[in-house]
Amino acid sequence: MGARVTARGLGRSYGEVEILRDISFEIPAGGSLAVVGSSGSGKTTLLNLIAGLTPPGAWEGEFAVDPPGAGRSYLMQDCALFPWKTVLANLELPLALARVPAAERRARAEAALSELGLSGLAGRYPGEISGGERQRIALARALAARADLVVLDEPFSAVDAIARERLQDAVAGLLAGKGLTSVVATHSIEEAVRLGDEVLVLGGRPASITARFGNPGRCGPGFRSTEGFFRLALAVRRALEDA
Amino acid sequence: MSAGASGGGPSKAAGYARAFLLILGLWLVLSLALGPLVLPRPWAVIRNLAGQLGSPVFLGHAAASVRRLAWGLGAGFAAAFPLGIAMGRSARLDAWLAPVMFLTFPVPKVLFLPALLVVFGFGEAPKAVLVALVTFCQILVVTRDAARNMDPRWEDSFATLWPAARAGERLARRLSLLRHVVAPHALPAAVTSLRIASGTAVSVLFIAESFATDRGLGFMIVDAWGAMNLPRMWSGILAMGLLGALIFEAADLLERLLCPGARGMAR
Ligand SMILES: Nc1ncnc2c1ncn2[C@@H]1O[C@H](COP(=O)(O)OP(=O)(O)OP(=O)(O)O)[C@@H](O)[C@H]1O
Ligand SMILES: [Mg+2]
């Protein structure tokens, strides 16, 4: 099940350089947060923190995931899958590290692959599949590992526009269907509006939240062609231009 | 996946056939120019080698050389790879060992042959040890660099997979990182350098076999040279050359077996 995430006054510096300042948000269990911002604005830095990569003491503020032991899965911008392991072995790795018995490992990995319609790729290496497939495989790994919080960093930037929308729909459906909590960082305004119950705009130096938008209509049918979608996209665009 | 890029298939065989014909042609021209007493005709040497292929004496020499090479390359790799990984990942260990490595790297390892003969006697050991020493140094440098220069994001990527329930197991986590990330990341570079080292290994083996032994292709060459049996000498040279090519190919095969995902690793 999804985890609840609370952040209050998050800040992060690299040495003397302050990157993030005073970032606050709340994601209810099963909710989703989209973070937009220009290149270099600090999206990955924020996601690293949310995914638990940033060592304690290297950041300021309060950050909590509830329940505390909730599984987090991070689809990193370009190092999500290990190229020297097959797709199946990549899926099984977090399970092996969690000491799940071999037979169950295999069964869970295969179930996750087939759930995403990717069973045919099990024996391939990440270098032998497309960028979009890689991201879906990484998502299947999150499912196999039974993550409660899924963190996605520009998951579809390597995918063409049409396929990208299909992937967004598929991922949104999957995360909602499982009730998983998610955070997605993206350059794409449309992607943020399609995937976030709340959309945060990062801007400034150091980056802080320059605007935030609720997105109640997100799960309605045909959302992408509704007026609500375009109106929100326009508002986010304005906020990004001002940022 | 083109046949050329994957390194197998008919185009590669055709390339080898062409290269072989070219070498034979050059050989023939040289032999015609220098006279058969200095450089025998290629067919004379090939016939000589073919005739020896059934002879237990020749096979004994070839087997001795293959065994020494296999032991030397295998032991050198087996020792250097883990040490290289450890040096690449432990600043403290590296601070001690890297200066030693850089200081000794340029020293030609053949120089130690007399010392090895003194220590190990005249048996099999000194030859294999010398080959192992040469292999060890090359693999060590390359493996250490590969482990050191790994993109830190792979380590982050691994960190995200480590279960929260085992957060306190620092040693287990470090070992898992080595096993699942650092070692497979460094392996392609190490195996490539093994392939390159195999060339040097054959030269070093020739020197090791050219004295203080009565077995091995190197001995056969020097022995035939002393007896002025040129066809035999040349078939020894040809056999040792073929052995080098064979080992090179075997390392290539090993690389493809051990590092199947390597094509996607450019990132
Ligand atoms: N390890 C680091 N050390 C120092 N500065 C860093 C480090 N990582 C990132 N930065 C800086 O922090 C800022 C934010 O980087 P970050 O990667 O979070 O941006 P981003 O929004 O994810 O960009 P992109 O959209 O291009 O992925 C940048 O100015 C970057 O140069
Ligand atoms: Mg980024």
Task: Give an overview in words.
- The complex is a heterodimer of chains A (243) and B (267).
- Chain A is globular, with a radius of gyration of 18 Å.
- Chain A is built from 7 helices and 9 strands.
- Chain A has helices at residues 43-51, 87-97, 102-115, 131-144, 161-178, 189-195, 227-242; strands spanning 4-14, 17-27, 32-36, 59-66, 72-75, 149-153, 181-186, 198-203, 208-214.
- Chain A is an alpha/beta fold.
- In chain A, helix 2 (87-97) packs parallel to helix 4 (131-144).
- In chain A, the strands form 2 sheets. Chain A has a 6-stranded mixed sheet with strand order 5-6-7-3-8-9, sandwiched between helices. Chain A has a 3-stranded antiparallel sheet with strand order 2-1-4, covered by helices on one side.
- Residues 1-7 of chain B have low confidence and may be disordered.
- Chain B is 78% helix and 0% strand.
- Chain B has helices at residues 3-6, 10-34, 42-52, 56-89, 91-104, 113-120, 125-148, 152-161, 170-209, 217-226, 230-258.
- In chain B, helix 4 (56-89) runs antiparallel to helix 9 (170-209) and helix 4 (56-89) crosses helix 10 (217-226).
- Chain B is an all-alpha fold and 267 residues long.
- Chain B is elongated.
- The A-B interface holds A 48, 51-53, 69-74, 76, 78-80, 82-86, 93-94, 97-98, 125-128, 145 and B 151, 153-154, 156-157, 159-166, 176, 180-181, 184-185, 187, 259-265, 267.
- Magnesium ion (MG) binds at residues 43-44, 77, 153 of chain A.
